[in-house]
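Q: I'm writing up a methods section and want to include an example of the input and output format. Could you take the sequence below and give the corresponding predicted structure tokens, formatted cleanly so I can copy it straight into the document?
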Amino acid sequence: MSTLAAFARPAAVAALGAAALFAAPTAASAAPFMPDPLANCKPAATLDVEKEGNQVEWEFEGPENATTDAQVTYLNFGGQAPTLGTSGPLTNGEGVEKELPGFTGHLIPGGTYDPDGPKGPLEACTVGFGFAVTQ
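A: Here is the clean output for your methods example:
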């Protein structure tokens, strides 16, 4: 009987931890991408993800004419089955929103960032890898 108890206790703790993770309150949260995919780019810009309730928003913010071709790929565990998708194009200063209940992993696999747009004199910068999680 003590052997059964030795296995049952860790299983119960794991089950409670998983239940707490998936039943977490739906308060607004923001998650920075780690590592920062724009860390080596000048002038500075940001890529971030925010979640409020089931609404996820990805946002790119840079100088006035800045552009990027980077997109966020996501894997969501919250519906009846896992969902894989992309944010679509990210426009400077405008968020892209999707309804994603539950736990979501967000990945920026790369791209380019042009701080002054395609007609400006500044050179484009390579967007690095970034990962974030929201729930």
